[in-house]
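Form 7-S
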Amino acid sequence: MATSFTPGLRVAKNIIVRKERRLPLLGEVLVKSGDTVKADQVVAETKLPGRIFPVNVANALNVTPPELKEAMFKGIGDQVEEGEVLASIKSFFGLFRSEAKAPIHGTIESISFITGQVIVQAPPVPVQVKAFVDGRVIQVFSNEGVEVETNGSYIQGILGLGGETLGPIMMGVEAPNEVLTPDKLTPAMKGAVVIGGSLLRLDTVRRARELGINALVTGGFHDGDVKQLLGYDLGVAITGSEDIGLTLILTEGFGCIDMADRTFELLKSLEGRFASVNGATQIRAGVIRPEIIVTRDGEELQVETVHTGELTEGQTVRVIRNPYFGRIGKVTGLPPELTLIPTGAAVRILEVEFTDGERVSLPRTNIELILE
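Output:
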């Protein structure tokens, strides 16, 4: 049997999932190896240095930098409030007073009697890292973070917007070919991860934000709606930091595309369970896929199958280029010889049978695996 290697997405009912949770810079780890943690539990924290605000005090007082020594009311390390006087000087026989005030609440970091500048630093910004999934700490990275292990269902998407969020899974549609419209969203879905079908409309996203829904998962979304939602073209950079009021995950791609039956049925079977969702996506320079993780507490752990990307006959694949973009099928043949395609290139192809019985031949670069 011929084989090949190709990238793929994972859709798994019950595997061991391991997540590294690290701080952006050194800090304090709040748990130890072996501890049981909850998804919303803070496992590590640190503080980012506050912004720096330079104030040209000498210029504000119209004095030379060395004269600041007599004019300063505050010293290095002193706390100041926004609008508080840093330095003052009288002029014209004491009839007028010039003042320099603090632009923010913060701390005086430095005073230069050479440049005449005073540096005020804003308070440090606290940063916390949460476990993201219910599980057990299996490794501690000193002053950095932890690795958490859990047994659960794991679903990867094609593209996501927005960062990490949590919530119970709720079905918004009855079938994978159904469009999730605004009228199908209810106030009872506040804080939930709502599952759609073939298409999510922009007005549905706006309604979801009004209701306080945490995440929307759908088969397809129009690329033009993405630009309207963000206010700019998406480009190829990593996603996950968009401020759109919720997290959005596409499981199939752009346009009206039915969610894969296997993905839809798995999500439907998980309705009511608590899900961890992350929309972060990166296609280049280290692939990151959006993900949905549902912990399966109390169920027997299964050894995680390591997939190497090997493509064999019988594998389930998704087409990622036109004219069959988004369609799901099974590999029925992997001819080893090169085949001339309409573009004039000689490439290796594969034969695919779609769920409706149609059979086609495609370049192997036009598909991705759906990993079991």
